[in-house]
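Bug report (template v2)

What were you trying to do?
Predict the complex of my protein with copper (II) ion.

What happened?
Run completed; filing so the output is reviewed.

Input:
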Amino acid sequence: MDKSNLPNYLEHKGKYKGIFAWIFSTDHKRIGLLYLYAIMAFFVVAAILGLLMKFELIAPGKTIMEAKAYNAVFTLHGITMIFLVVVPGIPAILGNFFLPILIGAKDVFYPKLNLLSWWLYMLGAVIALSSQFMNGASPDTGWTFYAPYSFQTQSNVLPALIGAFILGFSSILTGLNFIVTMHRLRAPGMKWMKMPLFPWTLYGTSWIQLLATPVVGITLLMVVAEKVLSIGFFDPALGGDPILYQHLFWIYSHPAVYIMILPAMGVISEVIPAFAKKKIFGYNAIVLSTMLIAFVGYFVWGHHMFTAGMSETSLFAFSFLTFIVAIPSAIKIFNWLATLYKGSIMLRTPMYWAVSFLFVFMIGGLTGMVLGALSTNVHLHDTAFVVAHFHFIVFGGLGFAFFAGIHYWFPKIFGKMYDEAWANTGWIIFFMGFLTLYFPMFLLGIQGMPRRYYDYVPEFHFTNIISSFGAFIMIAGLTVILINLFKSAKRGEKAEMNPWGGKSLEWTIPSPPPLENFEDIPEIK
Amino acid sequence: MENSEHKIVSFKTYGLVLLALIVLTLFSVYITQLDFGNLGIVVALSIAGLKSVLVFSIFMHLLYDKKMYALMVVGVLVVMTIVLIITFLDYGY
Ligand SMILES: [Cu+2]
């Protein structure tokens, strides 16, 4: 078949012109790029907010902002990073772009719904961020909106809550779309147990999006109702229960961690075999552990509430389940390591990201065990240790996997190669900065430095200087990476169809792919 | 793939289900006057459960569609039940 005469999806001319050809496009690849640009923009803003926080913490007392400003900054950093960047993150960008291609389909099952999801995402983002520009103070509740403070504070939490509610719809629709796509559009011959691992992890993720997101949606609406109508769900003065809020919130927000991390594991499961030149070790075990993580991940939320005053039975049950969920994650780590074993390893940029993912993700996972144990949790709860832990998991896990994936698939997405020397330089600076930034925070947490304060006692000064110094290095690395990618997308060298010798379906079609990916739907043998 | 085997459900069946739903609704209003003690919530939820089974299986065609879709719905309900049970571990005392 002759593929060369089809216009690729970037050049394809449709009904609309200019920017409208993008924001009204139902092509899954264009929608993936729409998410990419939006999410990257929010990510850069939120990363700068994070840098400002570390700048504030470089010395005790006020450095660049007052306590109130610090509260507003960490709230905005959290809301943006969680709801706008890492929850949609990999599924919306790489999932949208590569899920249909990897299963041999021309698009997702509901292309228009897919576009609607992006519009809902943008609407939710605008509403959530409008809280910063309205009269009155910026929200200061933290991204968790804990009751009863969230309905007592005078700051603009309402738009943030409503924005997060709408973002939930975007997430639910994407999940639904992906599930139906995988059930209905797999290429002929692609049995479930032949489906590549990235789609498998998206499958687990989609179920979580579909089932857990409505819980947080309702919960946020309950807070709105509480604030506007004084109903008394969570307000003890009205007979409500603030602990119930925490239950409802974490019933979503713990599984949300798996919305973030499962697709990241999927990307790593694609990158490692491609650069070890070996079939993935233990395909079945990885599939099974993915579904187990998605399932058991629903039942561990209480580990966020160990010091909130739960019953002993709950404490025991949640701690036990939390340890259980570590097992499937560890299975995956062993499978990746076994894939590397005796492989002929190509150390290219995506592989650097993938192996550093293994390193930081394991530190994140093991410190999670420290927090999941009831005794140590009492000491470490709400300290810098927790902040270090979830940055290792979320940023170290999802962030590193995202950069692995974007470098791996960059030639396919844009049809151009990035400058590898700059990409590797960016990676090493970023990696060093990351460790310098977050590792000291484990020590600070063990020494007892609480999170979410703009000030600290002088004993913590030295460690904080190192950590803040790391933040500047990491942002420098990030700048190198992003500028390199951005420039290369515009004028990099032309990429081949299969620059890494990859074996999956996306490498059988041109770079960049034509509008409907495949001229003929491939048969899988 | 093939969409051809859509079962046509008769108007009469839908009418009967509607009737059953109305009767059950009236019944659940009626039983609020009786005192079941702690079991009250169990009785109310059982009636609601019966109604949703009718809606799922007949109105939403789960009875006639591929077994997998029914399995998915049951799976979701199982997850939800476990979540509720675990939540109430914290309230049973
Ligand atoms: Cu958790």
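What did the reviewer find?
Chain B touches chain A at residues 1, 76, 79-80, 82-83, 86-87, 89-93 (CB under 8 Å). The two ends of chain B are 53 Å apart (CA to CA).
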